[in-house]
Specification:
This protein is of the alpha+beta class. It folds into 2 domains: about 55 residues, no CATH class; about 110 residues, Jelly Rolls (Sandwich). It is built from 1 helix and 13 strands; from the N terminus they run αβββββββββββββ. It has a 5-stranded mixed sheet with strand order 5-7-12-9-10, with no helix packed on it. A 4-stranded antiparallel sheet has the order 6-13-8-11, with no helix packed on it. A hairpin with a 2-residue loop joins strand 3 and strand 4. The protein is elongated and about 60 Å long. It binds calcium ion (2 copies). One calcium ion (CA) binds next to strand 9. The site of one calcium ion has 8 residues, from strand 9.
């Protein structure tokens, strides 16, 4: 009876002051310890995952064959950019029909009205000449498939140097084929230059020059 009363007294006396702080502290008391120990490992995993997610694209970007610059890759020689990767450029044998024709002095002569087959390889430039007389309208058509490679076309007046002079006509579309047209103001051999929209572009093509009165 004595102990029962003492227990009752202690329970009654301690319940208020002891439970109140526990109840009040319960949310923090229970969450804090759990959050603490768990937060470490979980937080570490999350941080590691987030960090990996941030690092992974950089680590695999450009496939180890180029340098990532914000939203594009500058790929090493022999590779071309596809999104944020660098893939090997397809083999492209020299075009024996027209090469070498990388310089104006080595340009391949075109016969007016005759289609000539060619192939532009990565980093290549293909130059052709076609003679026209003042007053004639010179038209050059470059036929190719954009899906194979994005080629562009430029035309220079006789005696011009494509390294320093401006073209008198350019065709730089983003779909199949290109065409330039110009009414000649002088007689002579006009220079036609086939390039890629980007250095890695390569594609087979047919080039045809025609003259109109
Ligand atoms: Ca060439
Ligand atoms: Ca083009």
């Amino acid at each position: 009876m004595k102990y029962a009363l003492l227990f009752a007294a202690l329970s009654a006396g301690c319940a208020g002051p002891m439970l109140a702080p526990l109840d009040a502290a319960a949310p923090d008391a229970w969450l804090a310890p759990d959050a603490g120990p768990d937060a470490g490992p979980d937080g570490g995993i999350d941080v590691t995952t987030d960090a990996a997610a941030d690092v992974a694209p950089d680590a695999v970007a450009c496939s180890g064959h180029g340098v990532l610059h914000n939203d594009h890759c500058d790929c090493d020689a022999g590779f071309r950019a596809v999104g944020l990767t660098c893939v090997p450029i397809d083999a492209c044998p020299d075009d024996d029909r027209n090469e070498p024709n990388d310089r104006a002095t080595d340009a391949t002569g075109l016969v007016v009205g005759e289609a000539r087959a060619g192939r532009r390889c990565a980093t290549d430039v293909d130059m052709f000449t076609v003679r026209a007389s003042a007053g004639q309208r010179l038209v050059v058509d470059l036929a190719f498939r954009q899906a194979e490679g994005d080629l562009d076309l430029a035309l220079y007046e006789p005696g011009r140097d494509p390294r320093v002079d401006r073209a008198i006509a350019r065709s730089e579309s983003a779909d199949d084929d290109e065409q330039v047209a110009h009414r000649a103001r002088v007689d002579g051999a006009f220079l036609v230059v086939v390039t890629g929209a980007e250095s890695a572009a390569q594609a087979a093509y047919t080039i045809t020059a025609t003259l109109q009165p």
